[in-house]
Design goal:
By secondary structure, this protein is mainly α. It has one domain. Helix 3 crosses helix 4. The protein starts with 6 loop residues before the first helix and ends with a helix.
Length: 121
Amino acid sequence: MLKFIKEKDIRLFIRMKIAGEIIEQLRNNKGTVSTELSKRIASEVLSGNAEILKEAIELTSYALSDKKEKNIRSGAAKIVEVVAMEKPELIAPYLERLLPALDANEPQTRWMIIRAITFHC
């Protein structure tokens, strides 16, 4: 499945700064492909691209009442979780902004946010 993600597509995505573009990328990715994409994006955050982290944090609670947008929330939550696992200090300033994601309908988003917060403790 991971063959579907091309390196040039990942690099393009990582350079994106506009939340609307990130939303579309996350909306169209599901399952293992989405997890791999989120992990690669997290590696860019860990390499110093803090803008992506800020966008991902905002997207963890995107359209909470809309079940159709779960891929956006869970993909963003995976980015945050992976970053927190490696460098919890990067998410420390944003812990309060992650709390609304705990109201997401899908358990995956909630689990990843809880896990991200516990890495900080």
